[in-house]
Amino acid sequence: MSEDGESLIGQIPGRLLLFLIVMIVSAPFMLVGYYKNSQIESCLESAGKCMASDDYLAAEKKLDEGASHFGILYDLYVILPSFGGKYYKQDDYFGIRGVARTAAIAQRMGQGEVNVEELIKEANADLETRGSFSEKSAPLREVARKQMVSIKKMLPIMRLVKSGEHQKAFTQFQAFLREPGNLEYEVILMPVCRLSVDLAENAQNPGIGESLIGIVRAAAQESKNPFFQELLRRASMIDFDAKKDFKKPPKVASSRSEPAAKSPARPAKTEEKTFEQKFADGLAMARKKDFNKALPILEECYKVRPDNDNICYALALTLKNLGKSSEVKRLCEEMLQRNAENTKAQKLLASLK
């Protein structure tokens, strides 16, 4: 090195020289820290928007994505906020994720999922051990804790429905609804309404079924969450009148010269059950949006009971989803001829225009 270069370095104060060396060495870490920080911040903002729009599953996914940026390289960034930016504490972040995870579990249960034990453990870990909450955010943890209590109470009831024990599930569900605090939060209404529809579909008493659907209708009116509107659409396809019709024995034509023999009780009952099951199968296919499979089943039911408005409406709704508007219009006009005040037929017909 030349004497001029050495003299130039010699003119730099020792502290300034040390600062420059530190800056050069720490620059790569600073860049990594800024990148990770920006990703964490972006994920937090996106998750907040998802929570505001009731998409808790998307919020959970975003927060999981942001959590992947924590680690040793990001920890080094704790010494750099003085150069600009914000440092996010990992335990605070996990606390927020625990709140989102709790709501996401409720949304999954609203979609019919019951295998959520591991998810509950992860959410509890974020809320109780991994995460921390400041005095300002502490109420969020209390809300999530209360939601988790309701979730754990509903889970065994939903499993009873899955296993076909509908009467036992209904009894426990009634007790759950009467218990104070269980319906305090909207996210809990997702599995509550899902349970209501599942039980209404299997209710032997149409009055009980209608009261269960009333829960869904109330939620759909009060909330902007599209989940409840979709569930209400499914509930509208439940044929409570058909449940009554299926109990009536089919009329048998008689002849004066040779009276028709009375049908044995057991075969007649079997025939009615078969027809009811066919209609139930068609509805199940339609609810799963497998309209191509639902169509022939519902058409067969319609041929047997063309004057049953519930069967007619289910067939019309299926045809609409298959793009067959002219046939939908014909079926709606049939229903309105029988009953001009049939609001479901009116709305379906109006939707074609």
Structural write-up:
This protein is mainly α. It has a domain at 269-353: Alpha Horseshoe (Serine Threonine Protein Phosphatase 5, Tetratricopeptide repeat). Helix content is 73%, strand content 0%. It contains 17 helices and no strands. The protein has helices spanning 3-11, 14-52, 56-67, 72-75, 90-110, 117-130, 138-162, 166-178, 186-201, 206-222, 226-235, 240-245, 265-287, 291-304, 309-321, 325-338, 343-350. Helix 3 packs antiparallel against helix 5 (90-110), helix 7 (138-162) packs antiparallel against helix 8 (166-178) and helix 10 runs antiparallel to helix 11. It is elongated. 30% of the residues are buried.
Question: Can you tag this structure with a few keywords?
Answer:
Serine Threonine Protein Phosphatase 5, Tetratricopeptide repeat; elongated; 353 residues; mainly alpha
Give the SSE map.
Elements: H1 3-11, H2 14-52, H3 56-67, H4 72-75, H5 90-110, H6 117-130, H7 138-162, H8 166-178, H9 186-201, H10 206-222, H11 226-235, H12 240-245, H13 265-287, H14 291-304, H15 309-321, H16 325-338, H17 343-350
Helix pairs in contact: 2-3, 3-5, 5-6, 5-7, 5-9, 7-8, 7-9, 9-10, 9-11, 10-11, 13-14, 14-15, 15-16, 16-17
- Measured between the Cα atoms of the first and last residue, the distance is 86 Å
Shape, principal axes of CA atoms: elongated
Radius of gyration: 31 Å
Instruction: Look at the structure and give the mean pLDDT.
Output: 80
Q: pLDDT under 50 segments (min length 5)?
A: 245-273
Report helical residue fraction. Answer: over 70%
- The count of DSSP E runs of length 2 or more, i.e. the number of strands, is 0
Question: From the helix content, strand content and strand pairing, which structural class follows?
Answer: mainly alpha
CATH topology name of the domain at 269-353: Serine Threonine Protein Phosphatase 5, Tetratricopeptide repeat
State the fourth-level CATH superfamily of the domain at 269-353: Tetratricopeptide repeat domain
Order of helices and strands: HHHHHHHHHHHHHHHHH
Q: Summarize the biggest pleated sheet.
A: none
**Beta-strand content:** under 5%
CATH architecture of the domain at 269-353: Alpha Horseshoe
- The number of distinct helices, counting runs of at least 4 residues, comes to 17
Broad CATH class of the domain at 269-353: Mainly Alpha
Oligomerization = single chain
